[in-house]
Amino acid sequence: MTDIARASSLLTIDVDAVVANWRRVANLIAPAEAAAVVKADCYGLGVAQIAPVLSAAGCRSFFVATLDEGIQLRRILPGGVIYVLGGPVGGGEADFAAHGLIPVLNSLAQITGWATFAKAGSAAPAAALHLDTGMNRLGLEEAELERLAARPDVLASVRPILVMSHLACADDDTSPKNMEQLATFRRLSGQLPAMPRSLSASGGIFLGRDFRFDMARPGAALYGLNPIPGRPNPMAQVVRLQGKILQVRDVDSPMTVGYGASHRVVRRGKIATVAVGYADGWFRSLGNRGHGVIGGFKVPLVGRVSMDLTTFDVTDVPAPLIHPGALIDLIGPDITVDEVAAEAGTIGYEVLTALGRRHHRRWLTRTTEGKPA
Length: 373
Ligand SMILES: *Cc1c(COP(=O)(O)O)cnc(C)c1O
Hints:
Blueprint: H1 3-6, E1 9-14, H2 15-29, E2 33-34, E3 36-37, H3 39-44, H4 47-56, E4 61-64, H5 67-76, E5 81-84, H6 93-98, E6 102-105, H7 108-119, E7 127-130, H8 142-149, H9 152-158, E8 160-164, H10 177-189, E9 197-198, H11 202-205, E10 215-216, E11 239-251, E12 256-257, E13 263-264, E14 269-274, E15 291-294, E16 297-300, E17 310-313, E18 327-331, H12 337-344, H13 348-354, E19 360-364
Parallel strand pairs: 1-19, 2-10, 3-4, 4-5, 5-6, 6-7, 7-8, 8-9
Antiparallel strand pairs: 1-11, 11-14, 11-18, 12-13, 14-17, 15-16
């Protein structure tokens, strides 16, 4: 039996679509540089499979969140420029240097720590500086920046090659916070020696030219999430998740379906039981709210999502399409990650990063496309 025939669910990741999305951003913002944010295993989609293809397509700079992710990515990309957003904590400087990772320094303490380390003679890589412009999460506050600007010796030891900040409301182009943060970023970065600047992630890129500076840091848009909610998604869909039907049952009123008897059957019909549950990252909050798609037919998710199983009302789907072994799209051409997220009461980022380890995963590139996996 092939892996795919044996699998209860199939997760297909279109790596070429990720590359197409990166190119689209790169063309849009040129001559600014398009980096790629590949933290959290490329938002759950597989950094080992995706990062090398992005690199081959011309992407030079990569961002991860943690030192461990940086060390893992260094093995995958021996020559890539790798930034670590969290920076060194509790004396990790030597590990950054050993793996050639560029720390994003988020506080005066991290900066002085890095300066001391660099001065001690070790061949420290360059570093990036993070300014807080209104997120109040990470980054130097204005008072810290003033103290730093008064210490050219510290700056010289640190050798910053990028100054960055992060937008709080970039997914809402009506928010006044965007222009406030833009003005703050200009003013604060102006207190430092001239160096490349970066403000925008996926959303900020689409707020306009002023937000692009020298480099943008898209993540979500590369993986197909809509960077401009409420308007048509300019990005290509990357993910397809298909769940296998295990059983089809005839039901009639007054039966109920699933735990808690939360779905009451009101007419004669059919229920398909699919082998995907919350242990697979198929959110429990989708109970009685989500849907799937089979053969172009939208099928409501009825009853609760349990650990391994989900039930759909397939009464209105032609019978030949509905049988054990048939696949229902949970994410696919007719149901986007953003739609699933809205039905689950969350955001596409969480849907992607929650995708479970039990799905049979396959990665499509030009070289694998069309070949049986
Ligand atoms: C995660 C992250 C990004 C990427 O954000 P997206 O919205 O996924 O494009 C960029 N910059 C920073 C600082 C981040 O933490």
